[in-house]
Amino acid sequence: MKQPLAYVHPDAKVADNVVIEPFVSIDHDVVIGEGTRIGSGVTILPGTRIGKNCNIFPGAVIGAVPQDLKFKGEYSTVEIGDNNVIREYVTINRGTSAKGKTVVGSNCLIMAYVHIAHDCIVGNNVILVNSTQLAGEVCIDDWAIIGGMSAIHQFVRIGSHVMISGGSLVRKDVPPFIKAGREPLSYVGINSIGLRRRQFNNEKIREVQDIYRYIYQKGLNTGQAVEIIEAEMPATPERDEVLLFVKDSKRGIIRGYFPD
Prior knowledge:
With 260 residues, the chain is of the alpha/beta class. Helix content is 17%, strand content 27%.
């Protein structure tokens, strides 16, 4: 359903049952899937792909060119999955030649005033709380929750099932399954409540706790901790996910918490 006060470019591919409210602008080279709702004043620019059953609230701008001085007008896209809620005044920029696309998965909640910069990869079931700011090429894995008004440095990776406290400055990679808080951002335990909500049993939660005791609580450096975990703990999906994350970290992982 299109309101007469909305503009939809004739080359845009919009499913028949998409709801388009007044003062929306949808440019060419845009694809919007079935059941999606586009709120008043939303601007959707070329290269945007939006899946099914998304709810985009007033004032959001999706597909604007990157805020990157290296961008030279190359073709790039924004790809958004299904069942996402994108609240008021969210901005999601297109990719650059670095990755060619900015990606948001499915079943995400992107709260008001969030910015997702060029070439970011946001997984499935992610929650970005109000005014969270993602710099370029940030990667956020599935089920992560980022507290409001947090700022994520470019190239940072945040692991799956992570919870980061509001107002955080995230300068280093945050490995899976943990909570992070304080300043500078530090390990403050595993995200046991979140893991239980996602059907991790007590045995798995204890295993994750044991992994992070080696990494953060036994006075070992990261390399030593990885060697001991590989030698002494049996291979499991959770163990291997943590080890692979730590080994692949380009910026290094956040520090442990040491009280004054």
